[in-house]
Design a protein that fits this description.
eight-stranded antiparallel β-sheet, Rossmann fold, Immunoglobulin-like, 28% strand
Length: 602
């Protein structure tokens, strides 16, 4: 073990303790580290431990040489020998490991595939709000009851403390009855502390002792792996740390593995450093084969789940926004859908993607991460949308409002013809005018028939995977929709259909007549229960109108296909040569718009 000393005062203490060392300057340190592959300890005074030193260690070691820093302070010389000496480690079966995450262990930790032979203490935040009575099982109270072989904490805080449960870890203040703990109150030999609290004592902030330095200098800690800067979420950190310590890996190699993991995941650069001897071990490996942690290599499944969730959440948010489709405040089905799915927008997608990595279908994924207090399942919430669309009045209410969110990108006549009347179709391409929209809603394809008006309003990426057929047999219309998942991820698919505009009556101008006419139809609406389909899977839906009343000359069939909550719409028109009788009837005149009797202005 090489010891490189940056401080004259620390050098004198090393001599008195009979340690061999080489005195170096900061300018020489990088070259000294790079000159040998033997693990190294860098000894420095507190003011010398800063971001510049962390960069020098990273460059000098080349990511290959295990390096630890031992801080020196004249008031804490008793910690010096403790941090310099290598820890031999204890057998796994005799160990006690503490785990804590401010996000919750349900999201940040999963049970290892090879059972841990020792004791794992899961520290949790047990109260929901500040000011409530804290449970005795809260992490702030539970953490001081154990003698930890190692303690891994993922948390956040302020410059002078880190949150733990309903309390905090503070460099100096000790009030355990209030959940305010100093390092002296926590008995742990080896620490992993991921937080926004670096060990560096910034000169402009004075001479306060940072939390990582306080743990190293004032507690029983033999090693401390700590954050070097404010950090983003690093997936699988707790599991990786547990697996590496269980394999008997030295702490210098563990901190390198954690930094490599963060780089491989693409989330951070050199986020950790080690205070203590890099050859120290928390545990002694007592298994023939090492644990293989999912965090030791990129987790493509978790990334896929994260992408899926982000897209899914964006689509749910788009549908939930009443302004996008013109849903009125009194549209109770839509309001209920918003309430049922509101939790999803507040979820931490990065954490949820780890929790849901094992799910191969959307329903299992979303319902599996739904908070316990949210009792409405994904399927129950989805089924409300058919009522919301019908309540709004169908396409000529919601579709026209949706068009306000898009700008034209071009139009052309197609070679294909309308299935109902045979006219050549016209395609309009639309592009979303706003920002931060999901890819499914970024573009729309509107298909117009000169006779039947709008016959499609769809997402182009879903239309290419959809086959729609309409067949008329006498007085009955049959429509069939077949959707194939051509992506590499599972999709949540739902289809519903309903009848509208009987005899071309508008719901907005003659609602009573509109409803009375529709009541005479045999099958007014139908739906296919939503379900998850995997790549290559198919979703089929059929809607039969039954015999259309003989005095109907016009009826609109609206077929809606939801793919991951992206709305796709198709329409088919039933027409008969009966309009003259309808125009002569008293029922027709009652459906026409009219002004109310009253004062007329001139």
């Amino acid at each position: 073990m090489r010891i490189l000393c940056l401080s004259n005062a620390a050098g004198k203490l090393l001599q008195s303790l009979q340690f061999s060392f080489a005195a170096v300057t900061l300018a020489e340190l990088e070259a000294k580290l790079a000159s040998d592959t033997e693990p190294a300890i860098v000894v420095g005074e507190l003011f010398q431990i800063d971001n510049r030193l962390a960069d020098l260690l990273e460059r000098g070691s080349g990511g290959r040489v295990p390096v630890g820093i031992v801080p020196y302070h004249p008031q804490h010389e008793d910690s010096f020998a403790r941090l310099l000496a290598p820890s031999a480690g204890v057998p796994e079966v005799a160990s006690t490991v503490g785990l804590y995450s401010s996000r919750g262990l349900d999201f940040d930790y999963r049970e290892p595939s090879v059972p841990f032979a020792g004791t794992i203490v899961k520290l949790r935040r047990r109260s929901e709000a500040e000011g409530t009575i804290t449970s005795r099982d809260d992490a702030a109270l539970q953490i001081s009851r154990h003698d930890f072989t190692s303690l891994a904490v993922v948390t956040e805080g302020r410059q002078s403390y880190c949150l733990v449960g309903m309390g905090c870890l503070h460099p100096t203040i000790s009030a355990p009855e209030l959940g305010r703990l100093s390092p002296r109150d926590v008995r742990a030999r080896h620490w992993l502390l991921q937080s926004c609290h670096s060990p560096f004592m910034w000169p402009e902030l004075g001479s306060y002792l940072t939390l990582p330095l306080s743990i190293a200098l004032t507690s029983r800690a033999e090693t401390v792996i700590c954050s070097t800067h404010v950090q983003t979420y690093i997936p699988n950190l707790l599991n990786l740390y547990l697996d590496l310590t269980s394999d008997g890996m030295p702490m210098g190699d563990i901190v390198r593995a954690l930094n490599n993991h963060a780089a491989t995941e693409g989330v951070d650069y050199r986020p950790f450093m080690l205070l203590g001897n890099p050859e120290s071990r928390a545990l002694v490996a007592d298994r023939a084969t090492p644990r293989k942690s999912a965090g030791s290599s990129p987790d493509p499944k978790a990334k896929e789940v994260s992408q899926l969730l982000r897209r899914f959440v964006a689509n749910v948010g788009f549908v939930s926004n009443a302004a996008n489709f013109g849903f009125q405040k009194n549209n109770e089905p839509h309001s209920q859908f918003r309430r049922d799915m509101a939790w999803l927008a507040r979820a931490d997608i990065r954490s949820l993607s780890r929790a849901g990595r094992s799910e191969s279908d959307i329903e299992g994924l979303i319902d599996g991460i739904r908070p316990p207090n949210e009792r409405i399942s994904l399927k129950q919430a989805t089924l409300r949308l058919s009522e919301a669309w019908e309540e709004a009045g169908g396409f000529y209410a919601v579709g026209e409002q949706l068009d306000e969110m898009y700008g034209p990108e071009g139009a052309q006549q197609l070679d294909t013809c309308c299935q109902v009347c045979g006219e050549r179709l016209i395609e309009r391409r639309l592009s979303y005018l706003g920002q931060n929209i999901s890819v499914e809603y970024s573009e729309r394809r509107q298909v117009i028939c000169p006779r039947c008006l709008v016959v499609e309003h769809v997402s182009p990426m879903h239309r290419q995977a959809t086959n729609v057929v309409a067949v008329r047999s006498g007085q009955e219309f049959v429509t069939r929709v077949s959707y194939t998942n051509i992506t590499s991820q599972p999709q949540w698919v739902y289809s519903f259909a309903f009848l509208s505009d009987p005899n071309n009556v508008s719901r907005s101008t003659a609602e009573r007549a509109y409803k009375r006419l529709l009541e005479r139809t045999v099958c007014r609406r139908a739906q296919q229960a939503p379900r998850s389909i995997g790549p290559g899977g198919k979703f089929d839906f059929e809607f039969r109108t039954g015999p259309v009343p003989e005095d109907f000359w016009y009826l609109l069939l609206e077929v809606n296909l939801m793919v991951d909550f992206c709305w796709n719409w198709f329409s088919f028109t039933f027409r008969e040569k009966r309009i003259e009788d309808w125009l002569r009837s008293e029922r027709y005149s009652s459906t026409l718009p009219r002004i109310k009797a009253g004062i007329l202005s001139t």
